[in-house]
Design goal:
Blueprint lengths: L15 E4 L3 E4 L4 H11 L7 H11 L1 H15 L4 H49 L3 H6 L2 H43 L1 H48 L1 H6 L3 H27 L1 H25 L6 H42 L21 E8 L8 E8 L4 E6 L5 H8 L7 E6 L2 E2 L5 H6 L1 E4 L10 H5 L8 H11 L2 H5 L18 H15 L3 E5 L7 H14 L4 E5 L11 E6 L2 E6 L1 H7 L2 H10 L3
Helix pairs in contact: 1-11, 2-4, 2-6, 3-4, 3-6, 3-11, 4-6, 6-7, 6-11, 7-9, 7-10, 10-11, 15-17
């Protein structure tokens, strides 16, 4: 279907930057709006989230209260009984902390997986209802990435980052309140150190962001080189370009290594420097506390102990929150990419009063049809054509003339922009979509087989078919001979989706699938393009048999396969240039005759 790919650019991916400790951070475009949509999407799947919030508050209690209790223990050191009871309280506090964190993980595992299960199901259900035009605009690898990687990013954030972010948030708030309670003046000095850490982090990450962006670019170039080298290895070997390929790989690999070293060294400054500043802050507060104690400003040694422990704990959560927030941004950006797909319009619903197709005669008529994948670039221009029921019609023409596009319109993969297509006298859009597509037996240009048995692949469109019917369909197209040579015959599982078979064998299976469907209208798009001459003749004889008493539309480059067609349509530049039987077109001595002479060598 290369015709419709031209002029349709793939959607741009989100930009990538690196901050924090060097982790990749994909920045969201609208965090608040995306979070609101995510909250709405997961309605009914969040049961227990209130418990998570409450448990997060409890989980921070050990970090908030343990320094205060330790200070009390130091103050009461002269009273042995008091110390014992305080130590019991401290042990109980840490035991409760373990229990609370276990319950957090328990509840979060259930909530996180329910939410992700719901998001993944919603996304997959929406994707299967999208029109073919959507898949023509997007690379399949990108869609796979959104369905797997982006959803997994959301899952990781919900399961891990959310609870940590809540706990650290409560911890920082609680510690700050306790520090203010113990000594507002010492708290002010501590905040100066935290502010310096913040400025340092911002300065370092400004530099590392550029370096990690270069690293990502170099990594993408290297991955592209590896993919091209592996996929085109036969061509590389055929032209003896192994040395050039290795030199190109070494060049890109060296560049990635150089940039990565710079980025990691630069980002490696941050944590050691923050530890040094944190230690200096701790020493400064210790000295200040000592001075205040000596001068009688502070008389409670337990207060000093508690405050110093709080200072130790106060700065570290900020670093963790920054890294968690980076992961959170990546997850929200992934959610945005998921919502981009969910915002795509599904296939248009059936019209009100749409009729079912119980039995179709197969009478087709195109009335002044116009269509273009891009409105400004028409592919079909004012096509009018009648294909009476039971007619074997063939469509020929050069690449890009609109042959496959006509098939896409007949099966309503796309709708016409102007004019109409009639089936048995009714516009295609008046029929129920599901019923309409069941009356077509389709063999597309690209063979699509699934990682199931050959039997299941053949009966894909007719799952209730008996084994005798499946074998008869295979015999009709000449596929039974190679199937029976396989180790398990019709029960052979195509582990690689048919890649273990030749292209011609895969094509025969797709034709057998269409034959078994026994639809009143048969469409064959380049059905013999990938088979040898002997197999082509088998398929040609089979086509004559299976096309009896049914309407068939055949697209072919090999004109020898469609000589016996009742009607041959030649398309040129999106218009019908010639039509008639083979003998009539040869008598015209026009474009069709010239094509036939060129292919057969007959003058």
């Amino acid at each position: 279907m290369a015709e419709k790919d031209a002029g349709v650019p793939p959607k741009n991916l989100n930009g990538i930057s690196r901050i924090g400790r060097g982790g990749v951070v994909v920045k969201p475009k609208n965090m608040k709006g995306t979070l609101r949509r995510l909250w709405k999407l997961t309605k009914g799947q969040r049961n227990g989230l209130g418990w998570i919030l409450l448990l997060s508050a409890f989980a921070s209690c050990a970090s908030i209260l343990s320094p205060y209790v330790t200070g009390k223990a130091v103050t009461a050191i002269s009273s042995e009984d008091a110390v014992v009871w305080i130590l019991y309280c401290l042990a109980g506090l840490y035991l409760c902390d373990w229990l609370v964190k276990f319950l957090q993980a328990f509840f979060m595992a259930s909530i996180g997986q329910r939410v992700i299960h719901h998001i993944r199901k919603t996304l997959f259900d929406h994707i299967r209802n999208l029109p073919l035009a959507f898949f023509d605009r997007h690379r399949h690898g990108e869609l796979m990435s959104r369905l797997t990687n982006d959803v997994d990013n959301i899952s990781t954030t919900i399961s891990n980052c959310l609870t940590l972010l809540l706990t650290y948030g409560f911890t920082v708030t609680g510690i700050f309140v306790m520090m203010l309670y113990l000594s507002p003046s010492l708290t002010f000095v501590s905040l100066l150190g935290v502010g310096f850490i913040f400025l340092l982090t911002r300065a370092v990450t400004k530099r590392t962001r550029k370096l990690f962006a270069q690293q990502q670019k170099s990594l993408g170039a290297l991955n592209g080189q590896v993919e091209e080298s592996i996929s085109g290895l036969s061509v590389v070997k055929a032209f003896c370009r192994e040395d050039e390929m290795e030199r190109e790989f070494a060049k890109k690999n060296n560049e990635l290594c150089r940039v990565s070293i710079q980025a990691l060294i630069c980002s490696g400054y941050l944590m050691p420097l923050m530890n040094v500043i944190n230690n200096l802050l701790y020493v400064a507060i210790s000295v200040l506390c000592g001075i205040l104690f000596v001068n009688g400003k502070i008389v409670d040694i337990g207060l000093i102990t508690s405050f110093l422990l709080y200072v130790r704990q106060f700065t570290r959560p900020f670093v963790e929150i920054a890294n968690i927030y980076n992961n959170f941004q990546t997850a929200v950006a992934g959610a945005e990419r998921v919502f981009e797909i969910l915002d795509e319009q599904p296939e248009p619903p059936d019209r009100e009063g749409a009729v079912s197709v119980d039995c179709s005669r197969g009478d087709i008529e195109l009335c002044h049809v116009e269509f273009g994948y891009l409105p400004e670039n028409p592919v079909l221009k004012d096509i009018s054509l009648k294909i009476p029921a039971g007619t074997q019609a063939a469509i020929v023409g050069s690449t890009g003339s609109g042959k496959t596009t006509m098939i896409n319109l007949l099966t309503r993969f796309y709708d016409v922009l102007a004019g109409s297509i009639l089936l048995d006298g009714r516009d295609l859009r008046e029929y129920r979509m599901e019923d309409l597509r069941k009356i077509f037996g389709v063999v597309l240009q690209d063979t699509s087989l699934f990682a199931t048995s050959i039997r299941e692949n053949i009966c894909y469109g007719h799952p209730e078919a008996s084994m005798e019917q499946i074998q008869e369909a295979a015999r009709t197209v000449g596929a039974d001979s190679f199937i029976e040579r396989l180790p398990k015959g019709y029960d052979t599982v195509l582990e690689q989706g048919g890649m273990e078979l030749s292209q011609g064998e895969r094509q025969l299976l797709t034709i057998a699938r269409a034959v078994l469907a026994n639809a009143p209208i048969l469409i064959l798009d380049e059905a013999t393009s990938s088979v040898d001459t002997v197999t082509e003749q088998k398929i040609r004889r089979a086509m004559l048999k299976i096309c009896e008493n049914r309407t068939s539309v055949i697209i072919a480059h090999r004109l020898s396969t469609i000589r016996d067609s009742d009607l041959i349509i030649l398309l040129e530049d999106g218009r019908i240039a010639e039509q008639g039987t083979h003998e009539e077109l040869m008598a015209m001595n026009g474009s069709y005759a010239q094509m036939y002479h060129t292919q057969t060598g007959v003058v």
